[in-house]
Amino acid sequence: MDIVKHLKKHTEQIHSQLLNTSVEERMLLKTITLRFYFLLPDFDNIVRKCLKINIDKDQLVSDIIDGHLEKYQKPVKKSNAEIDEYADDFEEAEQMEIFILDAIDNATSSVADLPSLERLFLGIIDVLDYYENFSDQPEYWNGLLDKELPFQIEFLNSIKSPENVDSFSYQKRYEDVDFSEV
Q1: How far is 145 from 143, CA to CA, in rounded Å?
Q2: Predicted pLDDT at 65
Q3: Does 179 map to a domain?
Q4: Has residue 42 been placed in a domain?
Q5: What is the CA 160 to chain-centroid distance, rounded?
Q6: Class of residue 29 by CB neighbours under 10 A (exposed 0-12, middle 13-18, buried 19+)
Q7: Number of domains in the chain
Q8: 124-153: pLDDT as tens digits
Q9: At the top level of its lineage, which domain of life is listed (predicted)?
Q10: Among 2, 22, 51, 145, which is least packed, fewest CB within 10 Å?
Q11: Virtual torsion, Cα 12, 17, 18, 20, nearest 10 deg
Q12: What is the DSSP string of the chain?
């Protein structure tokens, strides 16, 4: 799939769909998409190493729903402030670290911050694209990527009936995918 060709249109569709969501729907969407990132390799260790916090995934989801986000926002802000790419000892973050830290940042931002929710969805595409480009099975990852774009739009259409939305949709969708290090 030529992701660049489709990404602009897809981003516009996501934006359009998210504009009409309520606060409750946005919180639900943040927690559902975040569960995808929980599946990435070394999630807990990356959060511990980079943000200097131990994370309980269930508590994080609960805190997003309840709006108790400061305990996550402060470490993210501090971590971002400590990055000095011109320092002699600067070490560029690994791509998996970037995916996970961006997901935590976006998931714990204000529900009024619509671009952060968009970035959670687009980040899933970025992860799949990364695996397509750097794994030894590009066709497999391309197949997942081909299915992900329409899935996101269908999923966003279904959110209008929250009683039919499974909070573990993304986790179930990708639980059998091997997100090994590449």
Answers
A1: 5
A2: 93
A3: no
A4: yes
A5: 21
A6: buried
A7: 1
A8: 999 999 999 999 999 999 999 999 999 999
A9: Bacteria
A10: 2
A11: 130
A12: --HHHHHHHHHHHHHHHHHT--HHHHHHHHHHHHHHHHTSTTHHHHHHHHH-----HHHHHHHHHHT--HHHHHHHHHHHHT--TTSTT--PPPHHHHHHHHHHHHHTS-TT-HHHHHHHHHHHHHHHHHHHHHSS-HHHHHHHHHHHHHHHHHHHHHTTSGGG--TTHHHHHHTTS-----
Tell me the residue type at 44.
D
Number of neighbours of residue 173 by Cβ within 10 angstroms: 19
pLDDT at 82: 78
> What are the tens digits of pLDDT across the range 49-103?
999 999 999 999 999 999 999 999 999 998 887 776 776 676 788 999 999 999 9
Structural domain range at position 20: 3-174
What is the identity of the amino acid at 98?
A: I
Specify the residue for token string 């995918």: 177
Assess contact for 125 and 149: CB atoms under 8 A.
yes
For the cut 80, the answer to whether the pLDDT of residue 161 exceeds it is: no
Return the CATH number at 98. Answer: 1.20.1590
Output the CA angle 131-132-134, nearest 5 degrees.
60
Q: How confident is the model at residue 32 (pLDDT cuts 50, 70, 90)?
A: very high
Q: Please report where in the chains the tokens 């929710």 appear, as a residue.
A: 117
Count how many residues are written for the chain.
182
